[in-house]
């Protein structure tokens, strides 16, 4: 292989790798997992690629098993407060809220409310939707 052909092949490979990184590695919104403690509960909140439209949120609770779990999205800077969405059981100590609609991009706060033998508790998780 001659030098100019080798140079062109290397440049093409670098450009292709950069395009792949932009499209797949950095182009999408990443999943987010956060954890907080409120009273006797440790709450882990996960959102898989938060986006405009329907989202699924997973909540894992350590401590007394709650009887009810809800998630309530709020975008304070825009004055949006959406109705709480019940999270159904998804295994021991795990809950899932499906089709939680977020109507716009920006900084949201997701309030996870628990009701159970450990008493009521609320935890607020920040969520950036791009």
Task: Provide a quick synopsis of the model.
This protein is α+β, with helices and mostly antiparallel strands.
Helix/strand layout:
Layout: H1 3-25, E1 32-38, E2 41-47, E3 53-62, E4 68-75, E5 80-81, E6 85-86, E7 88-89, E8 94-102, E9 106-115, E10 121-129
What key phrases describe this protein's structure?
Immunoglobulin-like, 5-stranded antiparallel sheet, 2 domains, 130 residues, alpha+beta, globular
Looking at this structure, what is the CATH superfamily of the largest domain?
Immunoglobulins
- The overall pLDDT, averaged over residues, is 85
CATH class of the largest domain: Mainly Beta
Q: What is the approximate shape? A: globular
CATH topology of the largest domain: Immunoglobulin-like
Major beta sheet, strand line-up:
1-2-3-8-7
**Which residue ranges are poorly predicted, with pLDDT under 50 across at least 5 consecutive positions?**
10-29
Number of strands: 10
* N→C terminal distance: 46 Å
Please give the domain count: 2
Tell me the strand percentage band: over 45%
Rg, rounded, reads: 21 Å
Q: Which structural category do the helix and sheet elements fall into?
A: alpha+beta
InterPro entries: YtkA-like_dom
Domain YtkA-like: 37-112
Pfam families: YtkA
Protein name: YtkA-like domain-containing protein
Task: Describe the 3D structure.
Residues 37-112 form the YtkA-like domain. InterPro entries: YtkA-like_dom. Pfam families: YtkA. It comes from Amycolatopsis vancoresmycina DSM 44592. This protein is 18% helix and 51% strand. The protein is built from one helix and ten strands, in the order αββββββββββ. The chain has one helix spanning 3-25, and strands at 32-38, 41-47, 53-62, 68-75, 80-81, 85-86, 88-89, 94-102, 106-115, 121-129. It has two domains: 1-28; 32-129, Sandwich (Immunoglobulin-like). The radius of gyration is 21 Å and the shape is globular. The protein is α+β, with helices and mostly antiparallel strands. It has a five-stranded antiparallel sheet with strand order 1-2-3-8-7, with no helix packed on it. Strands 4, 5, 6, 9 and 10 form a five-stranded antiparallel sheet that branches.
């Amino acid at each position: 292989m001659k030098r100019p052909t080798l140079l062109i092949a290397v440049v093409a490979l670098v450009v292709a790798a950069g395009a792949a990184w932009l499209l797949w590695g950095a182009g999408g919104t990443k999943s987010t997992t956060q954890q907080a403690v409120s009273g006797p509960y440790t709450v882990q909140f996960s959102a898989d690629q938060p986006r405009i439209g329907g989202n699924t949120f997973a909540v894992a609770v350590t401590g007394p098993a709650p009887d009810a779990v809800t998630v309530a999205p709020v975008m304070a800077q825009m004055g949006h407060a959406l109705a709480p969405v019940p999270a159904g059981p998804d295994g021991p100590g795990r809950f899932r809220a499906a089709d939680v609609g977020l109507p716009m991009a920006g900084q949201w706060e997701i309030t996870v409310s628990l009701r159970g033998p450990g008493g009521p508790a609320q935890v607020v998780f920040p969520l950036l939707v791009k």
